[in-house]
User: What shape does this take?
Amino acid sequence: MTARAAETNSATLQVKLEEATSSLLFRAGPVKLSSAGGTQRLGFAPPLEYTMPLPGAAVAFRLRLADASGAEVPGPLLLHASLENQGRKDLLCPGQPERLFLAYSAPLTLPEFPGIGFPVEQGNRMRFLGELHNPTEHDYPEVYVEIRMYYRERGKSKLPVASAIPLWIEAGECGAERYDLPPGREVKRREVQAPRNGKILALAATGSECAVRLLLERLPSEMLADLAWQAEGAFPLVNWMPRGGTNIDAGQRFQVTTEFNNPAAATRRGAGRAAILAYLLPFEVK
Assistant: This one.
């Protein structure tokens, strides 16, 4: 966040339950982005929250930016968007709520992996957070951030869904998930311990525009994933479900290494952001 960051107090959160597609559309805004303007923050103060009307599981997500008519807005406007479940705690950062979804810089789709989902309960409060900026020469009078959450309602879904845990392993420590980036290459490492016995079924990743590579290692020496930023502005998905997942034990140490590249001639404040999502299926769900 730069010194010019400001809260977008006029933004509201609209949520539409679409039974035909088994999805909830979270739409936050509007945000006015002037050319070469500062950062605009949504949902920090006041919070943007929604109470879940049904129990079940979140199985997929899709993020995009849209205008007032619903048309997609292209361009490098996104800094951060997330959806938090206030009814559950983050296992890696116990002082924070569980994040169901997180994206940096580029719109992100988390596809459905059949048979698993992140549990949500009726009455859980979903909190929406977002940050936008406009480094271009064009004005954007009305921009909305949309997160579509696909779900399987408990007791009504035809497909059984096992409860997985979303483990977002960020480049920064808890409460300090962003870094200032000096010009050139910068490498950051973070070590975490597995919170439960279980298996990792899949991996996804997100990063700021300066993040070029993400690695996940099981210490001391086993490389699990080496993810490079792709031309379309995303990291590849890793799907271990066909082989039954990768078993892990509580207490095992893992390291996330993030490689950033700042092509600018000056330090970019708060530009170092990245995270790997591990879909953890515990052996014992409590």
